[in-house]
Amino acid sequence: MTPFYRMLHRMFSPISVAIITVLLIFSVQNVTASEALSHRNYSADEKRQLGFEIAQELRCPASDNRSLFDSETQIANELKGHIFQKLDQGQSKQEIIDFMVARFGERIRYQPSLHSGTLALWLIPIGLFFFTIIGGIAWIIKQPQTPIKLHLNENEYE
């Protein structure tokens, strides 16, 4: 045996090779199973419903504050066609949204995902809400407590 072969034999014992082989086989099976689940044939009603749902979640790149579903611009119609084409290919809703985000950027989403770049978009409104609630409670507590004075005549009391 050459020294190189002995070194390889010590590093990779038959048991470690068997374990690595089993792990690789299971990982390949998991990938093909997830691909099989994500690529499926949708019925016509499922395609229509899912296509409209995706189009409502995405913003039209050409018009302000309009979803692809609501917009009638040329690019919106083309993107709606792409959505239904990808559904015909069996792609999932998330795959289609990921494709659109990769092509047009995060701005195409109406609900931006939560990551370091959009953290302020999510935290500022929540912070303002709690700040307003706490400020309102503090303002109510600091109001002077003045007793209500009733001016009643003795005749009115009876």
TrEMBL record:
Pfam families: CcmH. Keywords: Cytochrome c-type biogenesis, Heme, Iron, Membrane, Metal-binding, Signal, Transmembrane, Transmembrane helix. Residues 27-146 form the CcmH/CycL/Ccl2/NrfF N-terminal domain. It comes from the Bacteria. InterPro entries: C-type_cytochrome_biogenesis, CcmH/CycL/Ccl2/NrfF_N, CcmH/CycL/NrfF/Ccl2_sf. The chain crosses the membrane at residues 119-141. Coiled coil: none annotated. The keyword Signal applies. Gene3D superfamilies: Cytochrome C biogenesis protein. Belongs to the CcmH/CycL/Ccl2/NrfF family. PANTHER family: CYTOCHROME C-TYPE BIOGENESIS PROTEIN CCMH (PTHR47870). Possible subunit of a heme lyase. This is Cytochrome c-type biogenesis protein. It comes from Shewanella electrodiphila.
